[in-house]
Design brief:
Length: 489
């Protein structure tokens, strides 16, 4: 426009570096191209013209949460001639109507986080990873702790459901690994732990959680039940952690682990790698954390049980065997997520693996054949109808051998032979080796030969130590009797 004040359109256009034709078009109409676009009118009839305002809008006003696909299916039921291709048109129309006339929606307020202020705890289900331990599918969850500011994480494998015991153990492990405690701790209201509990039990659980936080100087907070985004700083991390574990399993090439400790070390290594990447932020936040107390607080539930004449006790729908010498005694039991610690008074007795009721809620058993083998020797026929017979066998080879014996031998003889096999495994300490021999016999279609097994697993005479005893001559005692000790000396 500046050159046009003194030059003709072609010259001004050349000086402005565009064509003369563009200059003449601009002379005729100075509007930009975007202003020249004509609005496109509808080229075909509106398929929703007769039903949107009359039928769809009333549905949206009566049920604001109704899905567009459900509305479309209802319209197809009312108007069979409505074509399938109208669905996307109706979904866009519904979305536009809700933008103009819909209800107000919840707003997420982004927060500024301070170092050392907040830690969060939650549980996440890991069943979809199909991890196995010694060939058995591991039904488990992860307790997950995270500091909001630095992103420090800790994960602990939980065998049961969400409970106070699992939270207390996982939280304390996280705090002691971190070396400090944040000012506040947020959980998800322990909703799963409270399920099916009476009011008094829920109040007791709340008091215990508050006492746990008070022991570490943390303020206990809880997000509103069912509002996951209030715990969003850890909810989103669940997905990242599960994907990291899934990727590590794929790179490992196998999902089976020798034992639970091996899997826990595997998960711990993955979390440690994450923390190593956040090392600078974690070290900066450690300076703002509260000092830990001198010791941990209780992370177990304690109860008293009585050992019955069945050689065990029942706790939380699970029967546990113990040595028969404890029949009639009252034991103090500390209940952890994965184990039971037994005490006679204040004396530690033993540790048992914790069992869980079946998925249908039926009772289960945790049985150690070593606790009852001495009684089975006297009553071998008790094995035939024993309630916990399948749990009694320490390995699959023993169980399959018993089924084979029942098929080919009289019941009394089969039970006697099976009890002898268990006794041999107990007395000679050859449970694993004997299981391998039994598996070989099963594969070859042979029944076990007790005489050859006793010979095979008997002590090797060549391996026994040779002990030579030198007897003191009796004349040496005569010196003591005569009293002439000085002369002898």
């Amino acid at each position: 426009m500046k050159f046009r004040q003194t030059d003709a359109p072609p010259v001004a256009a050349a000086k402005a570096a565009f064509s003369g034709a563009t200059a003449y078009r601009f002379e005729a109409d100075p509007r930009p191209p975007s202003s020249k676009v004509k609005s496109r009118n509808r080229r075909r009839p509106d398929p929703l013209a007769g039903i949107f305002d009359a039928e769809i809008v009333p549905l949206l006003e009566a049920a604001p949460g109704l899905r567009a696909v459900a509305i479309f299916e209802e319209m197809q039921r009312r108007h069979p001639a409505l074509p399938e291709g109208v669905r996307r048109t109706m979904e866009r129309r519904v979305r536009a109507w809700r933008a103009l006339h819909g209800a107000e929606r919840e707003v997420i307020f982004r927060q500024t986080h301070e170092p050392g202020r907040m830690g969060l705890s939650d549980f996440t289900d890991m069943a979809d990873l199909a991890v196995t331990v010694a060939g058995a599918l591991l039904d488990h969850r992860l307790y997950h702790f995270r500091l909001v500011y630095s992103g420090f994480e800790h994960a602990h494998v939980i065998l049961g459901g969400e409970s106070y015991v699992a939270l207390a153990e996982g939280l304390q492990n996280a705090l002691w690994a971190l070396g400090g405690a944040p000012k506040t701790h947020r959980s998800d209201s322990l909703s799963a732990a409270f399920r099916n509990l009476e009011a008094a039990a829920r109040d007791d659980l709340t008091r215990r959680y508050d006492a746990l936080c008070a022991h570490y100087g943390m303020e206990p907070t809880r997000n509103n039940r069912g509002v996951a985004h209030e715990n969003g700083s850890i909810e989103s991390s669940h997905g990242h952690l599960k994907k990291a574990v899934a990727d590590a399993l794929l790179m490992r090439g196998a999902r089976d682990f020798d034992d639970l400790d091996a899997y826990r070390r595997f998960v711990g290594e993955i979390v440690s790698r994450h923390n190593a990447r956040r090392a600078k932020a974690i070290e900066a936040e450690r300076a703002a954390l509260r000092t830990l107390p001198n010791r941990r607080t209780d992370d177990w539930e304690e109860t008293l049980v009585t050992v019955t004449s069945s050689g065990g006790f029942t706790l939380r729908k699970v029967f546990y065997t113990v040595p028969s010498r404890l029949i009639g005694h009252r034991l103090r039991v500390r209940l952890y997520d994965d184990r039971l610690e037994l005490f006679v008074g204040g004396t530690p007795l033993m540790t048992l693996r914790r069992g869980r009721p079946t998925a249908a809620g039926k009772h289960d058993q945790v049985v150690d054949y070593r606790h009852v083998i001495h009684a089975l020797r006297r009553k071998p026929m008790a094995l035939l109808g024993l309630v916990y017979r399948d749990q009694l066998f320490p390995r699959d080879a023993y169980r399959h051998t018993f089924y084979r014996l029942i098929e080919h031998l009289p019941e009394r003889q089969a039970c006697r032979l099976m009890v002898d096999l268990l006794a041999l495994a107990h007395d000679r300490g050859c449970e694993a080796e004997l299981a391998q021999v039994l598996a070989d016999d099963l594969g070859a279609g042979r029944l076990p030969d007790m005489a050859s097994l006793r010979a095979r697993f008997s002590p090797d005479p060549a391996a026994l130590p040779s002990v030579v005893v030198h007897l003191t001559p009796l004349a040496a005692y005569e010196v003591l009797v005569s009293g002439d000790i000085g002369e002898a000396a």
